[in-house]
Amino acid sequence: MFNWSNVDGNTVVHCETMEEVHSFLEECEKRGYKWANDRIAATKKDYGYQNTGYCPDPASKELTYTSISDAEDSHLKVISYSCPCKPDSPRICFALGGEKGPLEIGEHFRVQGYVPEFWINKDASLEFDGNNFTSFAFSALVEAINDPAKVIRRPQFSDDEKALMRLLVKNGLPYVARDEDTNLLFAYANKPMDSGDGCFEDGANENICPAIPDCLFPQITYKNSPFDAAAYLESEAQG
Known about the structure:
By secondary structure, this protein is an alpha+beta fold. It folds into three domains: 4-80, no CATH class; 91-153, no CATH class; 159-238, no CATH class. It contains six helices and 15 strands. The strands form five sheets. The protein has a five-stranded mixed β-sheet. A four-stranded antiparallel β-sheet has the order 14-11-10-15. A two-stranded antiparallel ribbon has the order 6-9. β3 (52-57) and β4 form a beta hairpin. The radius of gyration is 24 Å and the shape is elongated.
């Protein structure tokens, strides 16, 4: 949520999306801000957002705008606007998933170097495999916060992609993995292992289907491979 107490005469507010622009200007209107031409704030929404900063002056209730580059050159304080229409999430969800895509409550994820899946419960506590917070989970959490790149989130798929998964599972190829160097995508009957050179293998080439175009399933990367399509579809069915 945006903290209006941080706004002063030297503040420039940057919005990352047009939705945030609209929300911010509506909030300015509620607080009595007007543009320098005396128009109410929410009537002018076409200034864009990519390199635009808004300058609300609490003393005069005047609203102006400038470019972010000019604001930085002038050593003004540039702060990001957190749209109030965004769902409130515990701070830990933003720390692990990022400001633009925080983890959702109950969203399963892995931490590089740790086997189980983790998730944040409704009480903002970390859980894994149905167990409450432990020293093991604490170590994983510390690593994930210090290096969010280690957080491996479960991919989200479209209905068409799920339909393709069901076909693979039906034909006995429930595992999908992407090689690192070639970006090739393969389906396997048995869970493949990382060979150590950027490729996956299950020791039985006859159980591999190499005919999956590598443009499909972009959510499946070398980092989150192998992907268990059967388990994913089962978890989706359970809600």
